[in-house]
Amino acid sequence: MTRIVAGTAGGRVLEVPVRGTRPTSDRVREAVFSRLEHQGAVEGARVLDLYAGSGALALEAMSRGASDATLVDAARAAVEVCRRNVRALGLTRVRVAQQPAERFVREVPSRPWDLVFLDPPYDVTASELVQVLAHLALPGALAPDGTVVVERRARDAEPAWPDGLELVARKDYGETAVFYLEPVAPGAEASSPESVPTGS
């Protein structure tokens, strides 16, 4: 069962697509949002949820005070589930788009994203993921203080992050690895990423 962990919709159960998605566990989602809220990255944020599945990540952000959210998934079944979840939670300022992530990010948004989630299915390769991230690294896609959160299998090789995005932390939770990326300011030197052992 997947539910909203906290905020105005805390405790509400979410519908999950029958197949083709890999929902983030409530435990991992709670840990991710604890970090993001500590950084002040959620309140008032423009949120983009690519490979949205049930939309749990973006809807969690909205429950916790994000300004607006766009949920993107290529699968019609997932998009229909996202729309039902949005209606069931009574959230406004949430858009759901049926489109492949790699196509959606080709268009520069009208306003930069503050917080982007990417939790792709296992069959999305590292190179495909990096191509999507490369578009997010282009000028105008992310706010200067934006945050990108990527989930992958912990045992998979870490992707070669594109120019313009800097890995600031990796956290492992059992089989799940969560990477936190930020835009690199022009001329700035990359810092050493924070790494935490499995289960932290």
Quick summary of this structure?
With 200 residues, the chain is an alpha/beta fold. Helices cover 25% and strands 29% of the residues. The protein starts with a strand and ends with a strand.
Structure write-up:
The chain is an alpha/beta fold. 25% of the residues lie in helices and 29% in strands. It contains five helices and ten strands. It has helices spanning 26-38, 56-63, 76-89, 101-104, 126-136, and strands spanning 2-3, 13-14, 46-50, 68-73, 94-98, 113-118, 142-153, 165-173, 176-183, 194-196. The strands form two sheets. The protein has an eight-stranded mixed β-sheet with strand order 5-4-3-6-7-9-8-10. It has a two-stranded antiparallel sheet with strand order 1-2. The protein is globular and about 45 Å long. The two termini are 23 Å apart. Mean pLDDT is 91; it is low at 196-200.
- Please provide the count of β strands: 10
Helical residues, percent: 25-40%
Radius of gyration: 15 Å
User: Termini, distance in Å?
Assistant: 23 Å
Q: What is the string of SSEs from the N terminus onward?
A: EEHEHEHEHEHEEEE
Overall SS class: alpha/beta
How many helices? The count is: 5
Q: How would the global form be characterised?
A: globular
Overall pLDDT level: 91
- Fraction of residues in β-strands: 25-35%
Strand order of the largest sheet: 5-4-3-6-7-9-8-10
Characterize the biggest β-sheet. 8 strands, mixed
The low-confidence runs, each spanning 5 or more residues with pLDDT under 50, are: 196-200
